[in-house]
Design brief:
Helices cover 35% and strands 22% of the residues. The strands form 3 sheets. Strands 3, 5, 6, 7, 8, 15 and 16 form a 7-stranded mixed beta sheet that branches. It has a 6-stranded parallel beta sheet with strand order 11-10-9-12-13-14. Helix 10 runs antiparallel to helix 11. The longest helix has 31 residues. The radius of gyration is 23 Å and the shape is globular. The structure holds NADP nicotinamide-adenine-dinucleotide phosphate. NADP nicotinamide-adenine-dinucleotide phosphate (NAP) binds next to helix 2, helix 5, helix 6 and strand 10.
Length: 398
């Protein structure tokens, strides 16, 4: 018995020393081939030091350089970053309970706080450092991705990403255009494909309603659905009608002309509804679906984070579960499916979307581009609403 224990101990020590040697070797390689200066401990970024309105945004040249201790991560020089409504909400403290739980320990300061926090979810940029063992990318490659909300964001000179989350930037568009797609692309993909069950083979002639077609998610979702042959109806303001028809929308309903549900009720029923607006839409939208045909209503506006912020994680999660369970069962009784949709970083989706962009099936829709010094103005613009596509920040030279 003691011989076995002795043998096991020896094996264990052998394995540990092997792991240590490998880690030391990887770190040495990283230093050897490092393209960011060894002295790089700080970088330029827009940070917040507390939650609040636009005046909490602070420019600094002394933000911490991304901590690059994990073996399968890379450092990307951000050329352009995209803004989303979640940046406005997070600036005000939205989702802080849930996000604190998932935050990377390397991004928590010594006092246990997430500040200074960098916002910005989308980026397009150039790989500055990556593991040599990575088969897909090398230093200098152009990539795009969306940073998960519980990580340091892209309104910075550099961002750290897991290599598996990176996707090659489409070659046919600029970095600024590319930065307009990842977050809304991944969100729409998750809602329509993962939750909604649609794909390029089963979407032809499906009837899709996009409630709120003129913003970032809507303009992307219209194009994805049209590329796959669906029939797309959208709701938007009257002055966005032309713009959305140009993107491919088949039928446009002006929500400013009166109760929008009335003209929608006169139309043939839908196979799937993507709701980007929320509010009272749930009261009437599920009645527009084809009953007992597997039709789905997917809303991006759920109380998920409000519940955990207000009630704490255990009670908030319980409330979320109870709410969604009640709604799913209630609507199932009427023959339609009710779902909440969420953003999720998805490299495979981005690879496919990138190919669709290069094939001319999806184009970036940039509403306005701001320089890096104009980040507060970019937030102000986004906060006013009435987006026509995406707001982008040019962080460095394209
Ligand atoms: N759950 C998630 O993970 C997730 C992920 C991404 C986004 N979202 C949420 O989804 C929503 C849409 O995101 P986004 O990036 O597309 O936002 P956005 O770019 O700000 O677009 C919102 C659009 O809706 C239009 N609009 C406002 N009220 C409307 C109404 N009653 N009917 C139809 N259109 C209306 C606005 O234009 P006008 O005011 O000029 O009409 C604007 O074009 C946001 O609330 C966002 O927070 C959630």
């Amino acid at each position: 018995m003691s011989t076995v224990r002795h043998f096991m101990n020896k094996r264990c020590v052998f394995h540990l020393s092997k792991v240590k040697t490998t880690l030391l070797w990887m770190d040495k390689q990283r230093r050897l081939f490092s393209t960011t200066k060894a002295s790089n401990t700080v970088m330029s970024a827009w940070v917040i030091d507390r939650y609040g309105s636009n005046d909490v945004l602070r420019y600094t040249r002394n933000a911490s350089f991304p901590d690059y201790r994990y073996p399968l991560t890379g450092i990307i020089k951000v050329v352009a970053a995209g803004l989303n409504p979640i940046d406005i909400s997070m600036r005000g403290g939205y989702g802080v309970s849930s996000m604190s739980m998932q935050r990377d320990p390397l991004n928590i300061n010594q006092r246990g706080s997430e500040f200074p926090l960098i916002l910005g979810r989308d980026f397009s940029g150039i790989i500055m450092e990556c593991p040599l063992s990575n088969p897909d990318f090398k230093v200098g490659d152009e990539v795009w991705a969306a940073v998960s909300p519980y990580k340091q964001g892209s309104l910075a000179e550099f961002v750290m990403m897991a290599m598996v989350e990176l996707s090659p930037k489409p070659k046919s568009i600029s970095h600024a255009e590319a930065a307009s797609i990842p977050f809304v692309g991944c969100t729409a993909w998750r809602a329509l494909v993962e939750t909604g069950g649609l794909n390029e083979f089963n979407s032809a002639n499906k009837r899709i309603l996009i409630i709120g077609g003129s913003g970032g998610v809507g303009t992307f979702a219209i194009q994805l659905m049209k590329a796959w042959g669906a029939h797309v109806t959208v709701t938007c303001s009257q002055n966005a009608e032309r713009f959305l028809r140009d993107l491919g929308a088949d039928h446009v309903v002006d929500y400013t002309a009166g109760p929008v549900e009335e003209p929608l009720r006169d139309l043939e029923k839908f196979d799937l509804i993507l709701d980007n607006i929320g509010g009272d839409t749930e009261r009437w939208a599920l009645g527009l679906l084809k009953p007992w045909k597997g039709a789905k209503y997917i809303t991006l506006i759920s109380p998920f984070f409000e519940n955990t912020d207000q009630l704490g994680i255990p009670d908030g999660m319980l409330q979320n579960f109870a709410t969604v369970f009640y709604k799913v069962v209630k609507h199932l009784a009427n023959g339609v499916h009710y779902r909440w949709g969420f953003f999720q970083s998805d490299r495979i989706a981005l690879d496919i979307i990138g190919d669709m962009v290069d094939a001319g099936e999806i184009r970036p829709v940039v509403d306005e581009t701001f320089s890096f010094s104009q980040v507060p103005q970019a937030f102000e613009k986004l906060e006013k609403g009435h987006a026509r596509g995406k707001t982008v920040v040019q962080v460095s030279e394209d």
